[in-house]
Design brief:
- By secondary structure, this protein is an alpha/beta fold.
- The protein has two domains: 254 residues, Ribonuclease Z/Hydroxyacylglutathione hydrolase-like (Metallo-beta-lactamase, Chain A), CATH 3.60.15.10; 41 residues, no CATH class.
- 24% of the residues lie in helices and 27% in strands.
- The chain has nine helices and 18 strands.
- The chain is globular and about 75 Å long.
- The termini are close together.
Length: 303
């Protein structure tokens, strides 16, 4: 299964009648990650036909309400549905104390087991890792401590050519080493180069969630060559002074970050409610970085 991103919410702090606060679902092989959980997230999960039981890893970027006010409702619903699973929440350490009083008022014993992972807010850190993917948090530049998240697929082994197995009578026990890059030595002592036996694996995919932040060029160092970069674009360039004051970005600045990162594609969101026509954001960003799309509710983006 490819990396697939679904936008649940694309607006900034004030929701509109057709745009919700920030929330996204990233589907990767074997996992389903919820990134931020603004108000209305559980409704959007239902509209987009996501099973609540698959939400086992939740990443909260910071503690402004439009990024986590939907969390208690989601957890309450999961409990009412009788979802029995571990739910890992990766967030600033204060979140646990913020939602504990609400959790204490949920009737009956919680069916889900909440596991909180406090995040390092000062430097990049690996916060989740398995055989196929690594998730790295990194600080951005906002009015309160805020983190972005980088999801990186791990390099897969090479693919061995089936016809070469038969041609050289390669034992099953040798295949793993060949896929890892080793040559093969026949019984006669002939060395068969690895490149003759294998085809290269696909290039690992990556997705970066660069949430509420001022334009901050040092971020590009950790985001180099990312396949899909989501970068907030709260304002248009005409309000760049307001963007600087509130530590947000303009659409043009998001595009400049995509250039610095050498990203393959840019996705912009977190739009201010004062703007009704989002096409202006796309036009402004595309003047700098052509491969730009708007983050639109319900739309899926294949990485």
């Amino acid at each position: 299964m490819p990396f697939e991103l679904t936008i649940l919410g694309s607006n900034s702090a004030l929701p509109t009648s057709n745009r919700y606060p920030t929330a996204q679902v990233l589907e990767v092989p074997g996992r389903c990650f919820l990134i931020d959980c603004g108000e209305g997230t559980q409704m959007q999960l239902r509209r987009n036909k996501f099973s609540f039981s698959k939400i086992q890893h939740i990443f909260i970027s910071h503690l402004h309400g439009d990024h986590y006010y939907g969390l208690i409702g989601l957890l309450s619903t999961m409990n009412l549905l009788g979802v029995k699973t571990d739910v890992h929440i990766y967030a600033p350490s204060e979140l646990k104390e913020l939602i504990k009083p609400q959790l204490d008022f949920i009737r009956g014993e919680m069916s889900i087991n909440l596991i909180f992972h406090p995040l390092n807010q000062k430097k990049p850190a690996t916060i989740f890792e398995n055989k196929t993917i690594e998730v790295i948090s990194f600080p951005v530049k906002h009015s309160i401590p805020t983190l972005g998240f980088l999801f990186k697929e791990k390099q897969k082994p090479a693919n061995i050519k089936k016809e070469m197995i038969a041609y050289y009578n390669i034992p099953l026990a040798k295949i793993k080493a060949i896929k890892a890059g080793n040559d093969f030595i026949t019984n006669e002592g002939e060395v068969i180069p690895n490149e003759r036996l294998t085809t290269p694996p696909p290039r690992p995919k990556s997705y970066a969630f660069c949430t509420d932040t001022a334009f901050h060029p040092p971020l590009s160092e950790i985001l180099q060559h990312v396949d899909l970069l989501y970068h907030e674009a709260t304002f248009l360039e005409e309000l760049k002074d307001l963007a600087a004051k509130t530590l947000h970005s303009t659409a043009r600045q998001a595009a400049e970050m995509a250039q610095l990162c050498k990203a393959s594609k840019l996705l912009i969101g977190h739009f201010s409610s004062r703007f009704k026509n989002l096409e202006y954001f796309k036009t402004e960003a595309q003047e700098v970085f052509a491969n730009t799309e708007l983050a639109l509710e319900g739309k899926k983006y294949i990485i």
